[in-house]
Specification:
Elements: E1 8-13, H1 18-32, E2 37-43, H2 44-57, H3 62-71, E3 75-81, H4 95-104, H5 106-120, E4 125-131, H6 137-143, E5 147-151, H7 156-163, H8 165-170, E6 184-185, E7 194-195, H9 206-227, E8 231-234, H10 252-255, E9 260-263, H11 268-272, E10 280-282, H12 286-294, E11 299-301, H13 308-318, E12 322-324, H14 333-344, H15 346-366, H16 372-390
Parallel strand pairs: 1-2, 1-4, 2-3, 4-5, 8-9, 10-11, 11-12
Antiparallel strand pairs: 6-7
Helix pairs in contact: 9-14
Length: 394
Amino acid sequence: MAENRGKPHAIMISVPYQGHINPFVNLALKIASKGFSITFVHFEFVHHRLSKAHHLHCNKTQVDIFSEARESGLDIRYTTISDGFPLEFDRDANYEEFWGRVLHEFPSRVDEFVRKTIKSDPYLLHFLVADTVFSWPATIAEKYNLVNVSLWTEPALVFTLAYHVDLLIENGHFPCKVNNIHEEVNYVPGVKSISTRDLTGMSVSFGSFVHTSRQVIEEIAYGLLLSEVHFIWVVREGILSSSDTKIMPDGYEDEVKDKGLIIPWSNQIRVLSNPAVGGFLTHNGWNSTIESLWCGVPMICYPFLFDQPTNRKLVVNDWKCGISLCDGTSVDRKEVAEKIKSFMSGAPSKRFRQEANKVKTILHHALEVDGSSEKNFNQFIKDLKDKIQSGTSN
């Protein structure tokens, strides 16, 4: 192992949801391309679900992606870690119990994993890359004198709101109010103004979210049918959820066979890149939002929880390249149909597409050789190497 002497080695651990996993995978590949060694650590149950999805739908898993990366010469290792629950435990239905253990018991598992990893190859210069949402990385990094890289996988606006959550609590704006009263929040440093309806939706349990989503899916489904547009609907049943319950209305696929294609998985970027796509009806997860903007596709927004309402605000209010699917708290198929018809009609469609293309241009320029993103990433790599070499943690 002496050949690894002095080589930086990242131990990467993400929150076990796709919206966090995707940025971690991309960062792993990017860091590896700079000559770093990577150990990508998946939750065991996520690996199991993704492997199952791969078997059913033949989509690539992280194992496939990293295998291809190794074949191209990148130094990436892949492994899993248990969260302490059996694989069959329903983490979605028992959301609070699951996260209670992740927050309080999982850190000791990470501690042991990091200890063994360092011991297995002491010649590497180990450092930690963990999700900002986790509370344990700084403690573990300090214990083993590791540099700690904290990766935030959501927009800066959401980070700012989370950072100043004490102000929101003080003013009675967090946890989010369950009624439909909208108030303007204009006291958060760095944020001009934001409505309470656009604040990160955290007082909602995942179990009730799943139940509610099944209630509204029928209205959205038949709203699409009434709108008479052609559509592709990707229904990821049982891929990152422990439930395999069929969520589409009975007989719906037969009703829309001349207008709609319902599939279990797709390469979202490839679909959005197709010039025939006129819009993207999305829950506004940050991955989907960025991918839609990257392809210049305007959005019809229907956020559920977490950062999604804030992401919707950015799309609709700030960048003006999308609309909200529903103005109220309920979903009605007739309203859905009218919104989609209006969105897809000539003048609005052209206007939204123009605004989406403005953002697309900014994103693409940022990733050019002399673009702001590439410059900042190269500076990050330089600073990271300096810190690792100096042996300074955090």
